[in-house]
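Q: What does the assembled structure look like for these inputs?
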Amino acid sequence: MLEQSGRECFGSLTASMSHELNNVISIIDQNIGLLNDLLSAGNDPVVIERSRFEKVLTRLAAQAERGSALVKLLNTFAHSVDADGRGVNLADVASLSQSLWKRIAEMRRVEIKNFPAQGLAEFPDLPYKAIWALFLALRTATEKCPSGSTIIVKINKTAEGSVIIVETPMEKDVDIAASTELVNLMNCLRGDLRIRQETGYLIQELHFYRRE
Amino acid sequence: MAKVLIVDDEKDFTDTLSERLESRGMEVEAVDNGLKAVEKVESKTYDAVLLDLTMPGIDGIETLKRLLAKNPDLQVILLTGRGSIKTGVEAIKHGAAEFLEKPPDLENLVARIKEAHSRRVMLFEKKMQDTIEDILKKKNW
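A:
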């Protein structure tokens, strides 16, 4: 069951990014088509209306930049399984997760804001496990909060290690039980999951402990 | 002249596609979400609606259902990323006229729009004919 949850996390995040990349490709494809249209209509390339040409160039440049950022993100995500990534700063994981979640959050009309800790809030295992844990916490958060909400992710150092806190606005009478997958994953990570309701917010705290 | 409504949240995509379809003699409007699309079809007739399946807020399938509830004869062509072909097939079951992968080949898309236009005209003529036959039957002519 835990393995399936891991596959779902990677599947959802990579599907979201590939969708974004496909949008980038679609825009580039249409703009190349538009240039071809302009040329094949018998227009002299030297006298094509300058503003139309500049508009196409602006769109292509914007998409090249967007595509490049997506590829970098995908690459960082792919390397989150590397063995030498142990001891990563949770603030970096939260920042990566925010980018990975951007489109999913937009689809659900919610916003995710990060508040990283000052200094190093170290995660004791491989980075992808932190991404996975945060994925499950954010999935619960986006399912429970109303459309238009802002979900807050805080990273803190603690005396024993580090913690991710996910604060989600929620409506009354929402079930605040933790997802079984997150409970199981936190057990595997020898961490501690604490969930509570506080003045209209669902608070999920994911505590990780330093290992000797 | 075919009247087309594009529903997609990628502005650069809708701007470029609109320009290309307009240069092929079509009248094009674009909106960035499903709710605006439903408002548009309430007040205007379109020969084809090009609908992106994945959008913020109400998604493509829900938009499709609401559009067809307003106008069952509406010709909706779905545009979908490769990963959502299964959803595209599901959308056809919900009454979409066609579905095309993104990025669409423009000449193919133009052909699909022309077919949608012909189907809409045919459905309109059939409805008119049925109405006339009903009137004639009632009058025993």
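The helical segments of chain B are 11-22, 34-43, 60-70, 85-93, 106-138.
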